[in-house]
Design a protein that fits this description.
By secondary structure, the chain is mainly beta. The chain has one domain: YVTN repeat-like/Quinoprotein amine dehydrogenase (Methylamine Dehydrogenase, Chain H, 7 Propeller), CATH 2.130.10.10. 0% of the residues lie in helices and 46% in strands. The protein has an eight-stranded mixed sheet, with no helix packed on it.
C-alpha cells in the first residue's frame, strides 16, 4: 500500500508557514551548510528534548511528474533516483537543472522498486515485497547481481560501511554490503515510543534523516541510539495549486556533503526543493 494517498497522521503538530516558490531562484547562501547542529543533551535521559524545525526554500528545480520517487541521492553533480510501482519502476540518473533522466534502466514489472544507496561504484536498490534487491554499477547501471532479505524493503542509505535499511517498522537494519548479513539493528524511538513508517532514508553526519510515510514530516535519528533528535515539518512545501489527482506524498531526501545542500521532493511532484532548516524556538 505504498501508493496510497496522503492521510492525516503524525507524531507532532508543528507550525510552518507556506512559502511562495520561485522558478529555480537562488540566493547567495545556497551553497552554505543548510543543516544546523543539534544541541547537546544528556544521552542518559529517556525523553531528551526533540528539536522542531521549519524550513526556508533556497531553490526550486524541475522534477518529473511521472517519477514515483522511492529513493533519492546526490552523486557527482547529479541525482540518482529509484522510482516505484509495478510496471513503472526504474533506476535513473537525473540532471538537477532540468529534472530529466540522462540515463535510465527499467525494473521488471513483477517488482515494485524502493530505496536506493551507493557504496563506492555499486548501487543497491530494494524492492517492496519481493524480498529481493538489485546491485548495479553506479556509473553504467549495468546489473551486477541480486541479494535477498527478510520482510519488506522501504528505505535504504549507507554510512559508508553498511547498508541501512527500513522496512515500515521502527527497526533499522545495518547490513554488510558484501555478504548482506545482518550486522546490527537499531530501534527508532520518539519521546520513548516506537516511531514507525520510516520510509526514504539519508545518512547525514551521524544522523539518519527519514521520511515518515503519509506525512509531511522528516525525522532526524541518532544513528547509534535510534533516538529521534529532531522533527522537520515540510507542510506547505508543495502548494495546493501544484497538486493534481496523481500527486502523492512527500518522499525523497538527498544531501550534498561537499556543500551542505539538502534536497527534498515527493512522489509525482513537479518540483524538487533545496531547503534550509530553521529550528523553532
Amino acid at each position: 500500500m505504498k501508493n496510497a494517498n496522503p492521510v492525516s497522521w503524525c507524531s507532532f503538530v508543528l507550525a510552518a508557514a507556506v512559502f511562495t516558490l520561485g522558478g529555480c531562484s537562488k540566493d547567495k547562501s545556497a551553497h552554505q551548510p543548510s543543516i544546523p547542529n543539534l544541541p547537546a543533551w544528556d544521552d542518559k535521559s529517556s525523553t531528551p528534548q526533540v528539536v522542531q524545525y521549519s524550513y526556508d526554500i533556497i531553490a526550486t528545480w524541475p522534477h518529473d511528474r511521472g517519477a514515483f520517487t522511492q529513493g533519492l541521492l546526490y552523486r557527482n553533480g547529479s541525482l540518482l533516483e529509484s522510482t516505484g510501482l509495478n510496471g513503472s519502476s526504474s533506476l535513473r540518473e537525473v540532471d538537477l537543472a532540468t529534472g530529466r533522466a540522462v540515463k535510465q534502466v527499467t525494473v521488471a514489472p513483477a517488482y515494485f522498486a524502493e530505496g536506493l544507496a551507493v557504496i563506492g561504484d555499486r548501487a543497491f536498490q530494494l524492492t517492496w515485497q519481493n524480498h529481493r534487491g538489485f546491485i548495479y554499477n553506479a556509473d553504467t547501471f549495468q546489473q551486477l547481481g541480486e541479494f535477498n532479505y527478510e520482510g519488506e524493503g522501504w528505505g535504504l542509505t549507507t554510512d559508508g560501511r553498511h547498508l541501512i535499511m527500513s522496512d515500515g517498522t521502527n527497526r533499522l537494519r545495518f547490513l554488510d554490503p558484501q555478504t548482506f548479513a545482518l550486522v546490527r539493528t537499531v530501534e527508532v524511538t520518539l519521546n520513548g515510543k516506537p516511531e514507525t513508517r520510516l520510509n526514504e532514508l539519508e545518512y547525514i553526519n551521524g544522523e539518519i534523516f527519514a521520511n515518515v510515510w503519509q506525512t509531511d514530516l522528516v525525522v532526524r535519528i541518532d544513528a547509534t541510539t535510534g533516538v529521534v533528535r529532531g522533527v522537520i515539518d515540510f507542510t506547505g512545501l508543495l502548494t495546493r495549486t501544484e497538486r493534481t489527482t496523481g500527486t502523492d506524498v512527500l518522499n525523497g531526501i538527498a544531501y550534498d556533503p561537499a556543500t551542505g545542500r539538502l534536497f527534498v521532493t515527493g512522489k509525482r511532484w513537479p518540483s524538487l526543493f533545496e531547503v534550509r532548516l530553521k529550528a523553532l524556538p
